[in-house]
Batch of 4 targets.
Target 1
Amino acid sequence: MSKISPSRYIKIIQSNKILGDYGEKIAAKYLKKQGCKVLYKKFNPRDFGAKGGEVDIVARDENTLVFIEVKTRSSYYKRAYDAVDKTKQSYIRKGAHYWLRELKQTVPHRFDIIEIYLTQQIGDDTVNTEVVWTKNAF
């Protein structure tokens, strides 16, 4: 858990894109601290002329290739994990399958979800950042 200032918090939550980008940065730093190697951020097969969905982070966790969806929330109103429904999972799988095809070899892989929660403590001048990492989420 890390802390950010209330003024920075307000700036971050004013836009879903800014909130999402901030969450992806936090997730990448978290993964590195956990010993993972971040290979790519915002991988999109369309950038390479192929079909498929965007993968927020592609990382290596020991010998496993990990395709990670990052969801960031400014409250605990609804669990971020629940936003990764079957349609979103299918979209992420398409992007991952393009990556795996390009490797031209079979490698162990999995699909994870990282949830980032930014919460302001009542009566406190700081905002807490909490990370929840679910391995093999789908």
Target 2
Amino acid sequence: MPPSDGTYSRHVTIVNVSGLHARCAASMAVLARKAQGGVWIRKGSERIDAKDVMDILSLGCQKDSVVTLSIENSEDMDILNRLAALVENGFGE
């Protein structure tokens, strides 16, 4: 059953020393664009479109920033889990 707000989410912590820089943001956006529905990243009160590199960079996520990754469509759960793994594994750096 979906959460009351209609989205599915995961909290993740940015672990790489350089934070969420351009290459990382591009990796996230490429993966997010494969989703059928909306994909968002929330940091504090700011929520952005995870399919847009510039939006991702605008969050200014440093190492140890906690963000929430969200999807609106349960069919995109694999995308959500892959995005979370990408962040948790430091984008392979």
Target 3
Amino acid sequence: MEDRKLAEDGARRAANYEKIKDEVKSDVGGEIAAEADKPTDSEISREKDIARDMRGKAIEEVEQTEREVERGRAAARFAQVVDYVFYLIYGFLGIRLLLELLAARDSAKFVQWIKSITGVFYWPFEGIVRSPSVEGHTLALPIIVALVSYLLLHFAIIGLLRMIAHRKTVI
């Protein structure tokens, strides 16, 4: 019987030992985990340096974007003015071509006015090719050449402005 009491007492002590051992492991593991979660002073300093660098880069990017947006706005406004000027040239040269096709009288004030306005834009192309005539109606081919030339110049200027206005991408 004493052997049995002794065995029960040994089993109880072994169970208590395992229980205490598990508690100590749990406490020590918790302390280690708590210490592992705490950043060191050098880690805190490094995190602050990284945050400062990222903040600086973000501010620089915003400033650069603002400059690019302003440059784009200025280029867009200038492109609108260029478009307007070229549309006026196209319109006046188109009216002059139509008046030539309809054989309008040169003595009419409107014809004189249109010719005076378009003269500056038309003179480089005058006589560049012959203009066929049928019964007094003339197809003024130099005016068509002028229109095509101004159209190409217009596209070139607008293309240049688009290159200036678009944001540059750096990889």
Target 4
Amino acid sequence: MSHAATDPTYPPERYPYGRPERYHLHHVHMFASDVDATIAFYQRWFDAHVAWDGGYAGARNVFLKIGLGAMHLYDQAPRDLGRNAVHHLGIQVVGLEDLYARMEQAGLDLRNPIRVTGGSKYFMLAAPDNVLLELFEPGAGREPEARAYYGFDA
């Protein structure tokens, strides 16, 4: 059974970008040893703009938009040269609890429960080849600029 189409269980305001899909590859999250220099690089060469800059999960996070795509930056040096500066891929979800329950029922290794931070919810999961995924659903109480960044009307 495909869960990609709009599910009437969820109200329309939970769907971002005016689209019916429940899942959107949203961003790559990178470590940055000098976050301001990293921002300047992507602004100069790729017309990036800062959509949000603030504290999240214990560190400064900067959300950049590059065209339709997105990049999040941790204000921290890369921890593991094996993964280089890429920390995870972010997939925006409608119905995060449902996805978590279905993954749990399927026997996937969910090491942590869903976390709630600033009204948003997320959990992390190792995909094949140990690619780290952040599966998240932005909360209705997020700042207007962050809500717009996630595809909701500001």
